[in-house]
């Protein structure tokens, strides 16, 4: 659950501390009072991208700190994976400095936005006002049935993604060969000239750097010989003997058991002996192998000069020239042996297509199994939301997987296109949800989705920003009961304008604005029973309190 929030210099919030309880917390207040700003800060703690415009006017930075508790071993696995301390309470901190800089810390450890989102998927779910409108767009439906933390699904999706990328690469290569033959025939003579010119140089990776290093050694032969000779002679002369170091070490060894300092000096002297002896041997070998060859120097200088001219001509590095040579060799081969090259590309394309098809079908079949459970779950949730005769089905569009050249069969999400079909009345046929549902029905369907997935995801927090939009009367009571029931298993935060929903909260926080020193700031008030009665009565009556509204508010609170 979310225990507390500390918000500083965020939008019109200057400095705000909010403590939350378990169960259901309702947030009420006038339109524009800042209720949604509280939800926005929680969204940032759960991975929403930050924006410099969120910083309070004239402030240099904004910060948000949330303290969470949870019971989910998968969260601990992620924390351990990224060497984040596992503590009784998890702190998530975000600091927004400007559009390009923001700081994220989990348990006081710097993390990336990607890591934060991995944790957020297991920690909480947030419904904002625009989410309900996603139900009006069929393109969003796959997102609704995609599980947050399902390792089997993640594995199937990852395998499909790899096979899809491999197929696309083979598809592009095949079509490039298919359409590029005539153009390449025109350029064949020039390509062969370039291939001959580049092949004569026998280029290898970083050869220009290797030549420069070799030339530098040859040009500095005398300097190198003098330095090596001097170094060797200083290690091999009558005034310096490695044997003296070795004998000194043995002398200390005889008394090493009497003092740790003697042992340490003995070990260092012995190490020095072996190191110097190895250096001396290497110097001797280098001196014997050192040779100056003027002809070799001339050859290398000439070769480097040719390479530098080619680099300047093609405006490429050596490694780029090697890649270009391979490319034009393939293009020449394509023209000269077009049929065979095309055949090989086609065979590869078909092979990659078959693999992608297998992976896509595996992912699709898994989704269909998930969809069957979701259909049952959504219909059960609808019963609790005054949608008694509702029938719900997730329909998958049939896909023809016979044509290996139809790249539009596959998408980044797979081969599936789905439609939510629904009937709200007994005897009526199933029709597309986005065509037949009213705003109030959409709100309830969205709540049904949220409630179903929350019960299966072990989330510690659910947040709703006006999930009850467009409903009233007995339906409002059904939504209130559904949220209240959800709060028995998952901490639930809810912004609402419905008195029926406000009355079921275990904690009631009023959000309001004040102007102090010509600056607007957001404040909160934890409402006691008497204050809740007045707040709910105002929600019932509008702008004036009446005895009827007060009695009705008391009745709602008593009922819950």
Summarize the helices and strands and which ones pair or pack.
Blueprint: E1 2-10, E2 13-19, E3 24-28, H1 35-45, E4 62-68, H2 73-81, E5 90-96, E6 102-106, E7 109-110, H3 113-123, E8 124-127, H4 141-145, H5 151-199, H6 207-219, H7 221-235, H8 242-253, H9 260-289, H10 294-314, H11 318-336, H12 338-384, E9 391-396, E10 418-423, E11 431-432, H13 433-436, H14 439-457, E12 461-465, H15 473-486, E13 491-495, H16 499-502, E14 507-516, E15 519-526, H17 529-541, H18 547-559
Parallel strand pairs: 3-13, 3-14, 8-12, 12-13
Antiparallel strand pairs: 1-2, 1-4, 4-5, 5-6, 6-7, 9-10, 10-11, 14-15
Structural write-up:
By secondary structure, the chain is α/β, with parallel strands linked by helices. Among the domains are: 1-127 and 458-520, 3-Layer(aba) Sandwich (Rossmann fold), CATH 3.40.50; 174-339, no CATH class; 528-560, no CATH class. 55% of the residues lie in helices and 16% in strands. It contains 18 helices and 15 strands. It has helices at 35-45, 73-81, 113-123, 141-145, 151-199, 207-219, 221-235, 242-253, 260-289, 294-314, 318-336, 338-384, 433-436, 439-457, 473-486, 499-502, 529-541, 547-559; strands spanning 2-10, 13-19, 24-28, 62-68, 90-96, 102-106, 109-110, 124-127, 391-396, 418-423, 431-432, 461-465, 491-495, 507-516, 519-526. Strands 2-1-4-5-6-7 form a six-stranded antiparallel sheet, covered by helices on one side. Helix 6 (207-219) runs antiparallel to helix 10 (294-314) and helix 8 (242-253) packs antiparallel against helix 9 (260-289). It is extended and about 115 Å long.
